[in-house]
Amino acid sequence: MTETRLPNIEACVFDAYGTLFDVNAAAAHKAEQLGDKWQPLAELWRAKQLQYTWLRALMDRHADFWQVTGDALDFAMSSLGIEDAALREELMELYLRLDAYPEAKRTLETLKAGGKKLAILSNGSPAMLQSAVENAGLGDVLDAVYSVESVGIYKPHASVYDLAVKGLGLEPDRISFQSSNAWDAFGARNFGFRVVWINRFGQAAERLPETPDAMISDLTGLPSIVLSD
């Protein structure tokens, strides 16, 4: 997909985990202790975390993202034969202060200076998001942080995306939504947002309804897309 321009955008709304914050960072910080298991742990932890959000939504058995994240870590550690309660607690604490991607703050500052409202819309619980935002120093540039806990179901349910519409007082087509998670990007476009897919790892396009408006490899190219008017 080639880069495009999105005129008439009044707000930029960001997914948090994988888009602004590196979900592999917690395991990476324990790479010396985990050895060659750190990356398999990071990947399985993330995969199971997402699976549990979708399954809980379908089962109507909601639990907040902190519990889901812990359950997914327990599964990943068990699958890889890692039995270490102290390490488990350290990994969970690290998840509260995941590293932001290096271009994240600079990009948000550029968008803010360009007059855009800025928000996060995330599966994360309010406490998790507050911790991540504070750790990354993003609080001053954000106008709002929306958590799925307000509606009790996970993305890509329409009620989650609608939180930003209602909170910002804007029609969906006046909002540019950014996510590195393809399923989230496609789901947000299906809802009616204009969408920029931050395809950090060169993933193939999903076979799902609707298609993101633009695709870039990191957040650096976003201002030229939404500040074009």
Describe the protein:
This protein has ten helices and six strands. With 229 residues, the chain is of the alpha/beta class. It folds into two domains: 11-22 and 98-226, Rossmann fold (3-Layer(aba) Sandwich); 25-95, Orthogonal Bundle (DNA polymerase, domain 1), CATH 1.10.150.240. A six-stranded parallel beta sheet has the order 3-2-1-4-5-6, with helices on both faces. Helix 3 crosses helix 4 (65-79). It is globular, with a radius of gyration of 17 Å.
Chain-wise SSE layout:
Layout lengths: L10 E4 L10 H4 L2 H4 L3 H22 L5 H15 L5 H11 L8 H10 L3 E6 L3 H11 L7 E4 L10 H11 L6 E5 L2 H10 L2 E5 L15 E3 L5 H5 L3
Parallel strand pairs: 1-2, 1-4, 2-3, 4-5, 5-6
Brief sketch in words of this structure:
The protein is α/β, with parallel strands linked by helices and 229 residues long.
Mean pLDDT: 97
- What is the count of β-strands? 6
Largest sheet descriptor: 6 strands, parallel
Which structural class is indicated by helix and strand composition?
A: alpha/beta
Task: Give the DSSP E fraction (strand runs of 2 or more residues).
Answer: 5-15%
Number of helices, where a helix is a run of at least 4 consecutive DSSP H or I residues: 10
CATH fold node name of the largest domain:
Rossmann fold
Q: How many angstroms separate the termini?
A: 21 Å
SSE series: EHHHHHHEHEHEHEEH
CATH evolutionary superfamily of the largest domain: HAD superfamily/HAD-like
Radius of gyration: 17 Å
In spatial order, strands of the major sheet run: 3-2-1-4-5-6
- Percent in helix: 40-55%
From the coordinates shown, what is the CATH architecture of the largest domain?
3-Layer(aba) Sandwich
Low-confidence stretches: none
CATH class placement of the largest domain: Alpha Beta
Domain module tally: 2
Shape descriptor reads: globular
